[in-house]
Structures are given as C-alpha cells and as structure tokens.
Amino acid sequence: MKHRIPPPPARTVLTDPVHFLAFGFGSGLSPVAPGTFGTLAAIPLWWLVQGLPLWTYLLITLLVTLVGFWLCGESARRLDVHDHPGIVWDEIAGFLVTMIAAPAGWPWLLAGFLLFRLFDIVKPWPARWFDRRLHTGAGIVLDDVVAGLYAFLVLQGAAWWIGAA
User: Fold this and answer.
1) Are 27 and 45 in contact, with CB atoms under 8 Å apart?
2) What are the Cα distances from residue 162, in Å, to 108, 111, 120, 157?
3) Within 13 Å and on the Cβ side, how many CA atoms surround 6?
C-alpha cells in the first residue's frame, strides 16, 4: 500500500516530462485518492484506442506497460521515493489491461473502472508480491498489471454470462 507522502510541488510535476507522464498528466497530484484520479486519466486514452483492432490495442497496452517500467522507476528515483503515491502511470497501464476487448458502452466502462480499482487496492497474489519485492519501475507497474488481469477476467466473465443469459 502506498504511504501518505505529500506530492512534490506541482511546478516540478508539470514542467518535467518524466514526472508529468508518471503522474498521469498531473492527475497524481490529487491530495486524495491519486490512484483513482490516475485511473480516471486513463479513460480518455482508452477511449481513443478502444475501437482499434485488438492486435493494435494489445500493442499499445504493451508499450504503455514497458514504457512505464522506465518512466515510473525514473520518476521514483528522482523523487527518492519508491512507488510515490502520485506516480499513477501504472494505473493507466493496469486499466488498459482491464479493458482489453471490453464490450462497448458506459456500463462496461464503469464496471471495468470499479473492478480495476478494487483489485488494485486489494492486490491479490501475485500483485502484492510484485508491490513488496520488486523495488524497480517494473515492480511499480506489474502489481497494477496483475490487478488489471484480475479485473479483465471478472469483466470478461460477466460479459460472457450476460451474453449467455
């Protein structure tokens, strides 16, 4: 779980491209629930890519994840705080994982958002392991990717069940 650490000055985040991206275009500056605001910041990106062919969506999700390994690690290094609560690029990657091949419509977007937030907070195995053991940018991102995979499975299960009803 991320500790209550105050965000760096807004000027630092908004003028440094590494921090600006790692802080989810500034959304991670929120003094309350920065992870939730980071996930909200992922919605416009998801909206832009959700209609693309699946292989393109998967490639973009992979690139966001891999870039996040470096980006989150570099921002954490510069702040001298591993997994600063304001670093929310990992939420963006995790939400994109959640929404892979999600059915169209606002109810599915809301369900994906809520499921991802739930699994990101609960951190079921192996998410918590990555969060606690990998003190790198990859560790910052992988716990959210795992949370996204759990949310993806539940969302796809619900879509299948509703489609089969």
Assistant:
1) no
2) 12, 13, 25, 9
3) 3
What confidence tier does 165 reach under pLDDT thresholds 50, 70, 90?
very low
Note whether residue 3 is domain-resident.
no
Q: Is a pLDDT exceeding 90 seen at residue 80?
A: no
Within a domain: residue 64?
yes
pTM: 0.90
Q: Give the mean pLDDT of 106-116.
A: 97
Number of domains in the chain: 1
Residues in Cβ contact with 61 at an 8 Å cutoff, skipping those fewer than 6 apart: 93, 96, 97, 100
Q: Look at residue 1 and tell me if it is in a domain.
A: no
Establish how many alpha carbons lie within 13 A of residue 16's alpha carbon, considering only the half-sphere containing its beta carbon: 15
- Does 40 reside within a domain? yes
